[in-house]
Amino acid sequence: MAAASGGGRLNKAPDALVDETQTCNRWRRKPVSTSINLWMPPVQTNIRYILRTAAVGALVLLSACSGLSVLNAISPHGGYGSLQNIRYGAADESLDVYTPAHPVDAPVVVFLYGGSWQTKISYPKANYRFLGEALAARGYVTVIPDYRLYPAVRYPDFLDDCARAVVWAHAHARAYGGDPNRIVVMGHSAGAYNAAMLALDPGYMQQAGGERNWIKAMIGLAGPYDFLPLDDADLEQVFAPAKPLETSQPINHVDGHNPPMLLMAGENDSVVYAKNSRNLYARIKAAGGPVEEVIFPEMSHAKIIATTATRLQFDSDVMPHIVDFVQRSVGTTTQAQR
Fold this sequence. Notes:
This protein is α/β, with parallel strands linked by helices. It has a single domain (21-330), classed as Rossmann fold, CATH 3.40.50.1820. Helices cover 33% and strands 17% of the residues. It has an 8-stranded mixed β-sheet, with helices on both faces. Strand 1 and strand 2 (93-100) form a beta hairpin. The longest helix has 16 residues, at 46-61. The chain is globular, with a radius of gyration of 20 Å.
């Protein structure tokens, strides 16, 4: 299949630091009139103001480990279970599991982080505790794997790792209170690309010892799905093994038999253009596959993932869309009585 015309180009690496000045300006709170000249936020909004200030700092720094540390620092540290560095696969890959309190046959979300498929840009799974906590708080058993990256590997090896992580989740879900028949694969940026490829091309799951129909739903946040021609030297190396190069694009693997997919993106994302999500949505819809899209008019590449954190969910509708889609795709969560 030929590549879609007018591809949703990447602006350099998918998770490179972008200028968030406009985002910060939008979030600045204007002073309110008081009887004194020194302004302070109203008492009832102090907590929200502090969290919003922390959010601004996290967004500005999010492409650095320090930004993720801010999100982890302001996230709750209790009310969920976690196990780290569980081995999966055959190349010393490991994953972390986050569980809600007393789960019984809970949905299982496998989250794949971004980072342009490159070690120098990606940050390991431990930096996404904030998301593991946020999803566990919603009743989901959450699996966050590390996977191999360039320059250690190139396309499609990182996809094979992600598929093995999903197969692991299917095999071990019940041990953590999850239901292997309710697996959702979710990703941000390059991780959303990985999730889309597993949902669209059955070969990856089959090669890992599973089946595509084990994936009951897919959620993509600001994903690159249709980004040729490549305009970055590192990405040219990452995808050099793809022959022809068009086979590396999720949009060219649409067959109409994919699981339900939710594609979310920001209109003002200057890192991965929203056109990626629009193009893939249109291709899947034309093929008769189940797909939904949500394009936020004001949403940066960093904010779409940052506002999944429990303390920051008041600032966007990203998590409500996730929860609604998961419920409609695999059903409500279940927890044992204490």
